[in-house]
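Hi R.,

As promised on Friday, here is the backbone we talked about, encoded as structure tokens. Could you run it through your design pipeline when you get a chance and send me back a sequence?
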């Protein structure tokens, strides 16, 4: 009985740590798969095939360079926000939902972060796409991920990559995400 109690307590603590994001960022996201785009290159992100919408660039009043601290705070919440957004979007079927919300699938994303000011508020534009795919003979990186051009704001992904590629805005002061925009319809 005591062993079961300790087990349940340990599981509760682990779930609390994971849901708070304190374990996720360190274990889930590889810092080598992210790029904080410098202010001079942020506008390049607006040309992504999956940026929020066609009118997005007209709402941006200025750009800024996000800090590691800003991005760390964002990444501690990103996996759970992404999962919630996918579930709310109601993918075509449960198999798609299971693949998109799998931790290995989420951690496989390369991520671009660019600071923008919209409506007088500081946001970080997030654009993410899978770095590669697994099949019967192992892992294969996508060409756009293997090319380091994406680190300076060059486009990542392709228009028909599907819902695993997304963009969103993160409100730095409120520490919240806006609507997630997925490539292609779920």
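Update: got your reply. Pasting your designed sequence below so it's all in one thread:
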């Amino acid at each position: 009985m005591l062993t079961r109690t300790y087990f349940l307590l340990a599981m509760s603590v682990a779930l609390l740590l994971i849901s708070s994001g304190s374990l996720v960022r360190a274990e889930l996201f590889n810092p080598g798969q992210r790029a904080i785009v410098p202010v001079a290159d942020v506008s390049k992100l607006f040309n992504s095939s999956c940026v929020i919408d066609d009118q997005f660039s007209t709402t941006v009043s200025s750009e800024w360079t996000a800090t590691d601290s800003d991005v760390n705070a964002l990444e501690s919440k990103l996996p759970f926000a992404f999962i919630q957004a996918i579930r709310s979007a109601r993918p075509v079927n449960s198999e798609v939902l299971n693949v998109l919300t799998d931790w290995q699938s989420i951690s496989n994303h390369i991520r671009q972060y660019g600071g923008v000011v919209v409506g007088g508020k500081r946001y970080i534009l997030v654009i993410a796409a899978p770095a590669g795919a697994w099949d019967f003979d192992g892992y294969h990186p996508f060409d756009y991920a293997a090319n380091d051009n994406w680190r300076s704001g060059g486009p990542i992904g392709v228009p028909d990559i599907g819902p695993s590629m997304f963009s969103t805005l993160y409100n730095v002061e409120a520490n919240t995400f806006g609507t997630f925009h997925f490539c292609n319809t779920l």
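One thing I noticed while checking it: Residues 2-182 form one domain.

Thanks again,
M.
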